[in-house]
Amino acid sequence: MGNFEGNAAENETDAAMTGVDVVAADDDFTKPRGWRHEATWTYLIMLIASTVALFVSFILAADTLKLARNPGQKLNCDVNAVLSCSTVAESWQAEIVKFAGLSFPNAFFGIAAESVFVTIAVIGLAKVAVPRWFATCTWLGGLAALAYSYWLTTQSLFVINALCPWCLALMFSTTVQFMSLSHATVTVQDLPAKNTGLRKYYRLNFDLMVDAVWIVALIVVILVKDGPMLFA
Fold first, then answer.
1. Are 50 and 176 in contact (CB under 8 A)?
2. Does the predicted TM-score (pTM) go above 0.90?
3. 211 contact partners, CB below 8 Å, separation of at least 6
4. Which of 17, 24, 71, 201 is 20–30 Å from 191 (CA)?
5. Which domains, from first to last, does the chain contain?
6. Which of 23-32, 45-54, 186-195 has the highest mean predicted lDDT (pLDDT)?
7. Residue 63: CB partners within 8 Å, gap ≥ 6?
């Protein structure tokens, strides 16, 4: 009787271990592989995009201070009626945060946010393990930054009817930043857990096609709306 119970327990343990091995094998099979899905590449792209966005934010902040000292002054990126940084900078959308009678330019928040993303990209490149909640909050922060950037771009296109070249550079760099952050979140941080659909999306390199269409779509929208005037 004792031997029977012992054998049964061993069989249950073996079955459990076999199930774990099968799950691990499935995870290994579905997980994206190759240099393009590793931390070095995904976070390097994020670092480059975030650095560009940070640099552009500094330029926009400097232009904001220049206009504050000399209201009505034309900026170097004022090309024509449509490509006009000063028109965008003097709109209310450029300073939507107001507190105690003070206005805070968007560019200052851009400097703060992009500094954080640059730091996170460096942490990713160093392959430092971070808690899952931290990786999740990072992705949500990237999504919020992208949504904010797109809102400002739509305001420029359809409400202000003027485009700032530096703002467009910031919008495209923020887009690439979010693409690479999403890539790293799935392939490096393994979030959401056990999501074979997203793993397959990156493993089959569908993201390359989607990202290319995404960028082209943004360019097409800008050209359709203001194309003739951009080169006037």
1. no
2. no
3. 179
4. 17
5. 35-230 (1.20.1440.130)
6. 45-54
7. 75, 77, 85, 86, 89, 107, 166
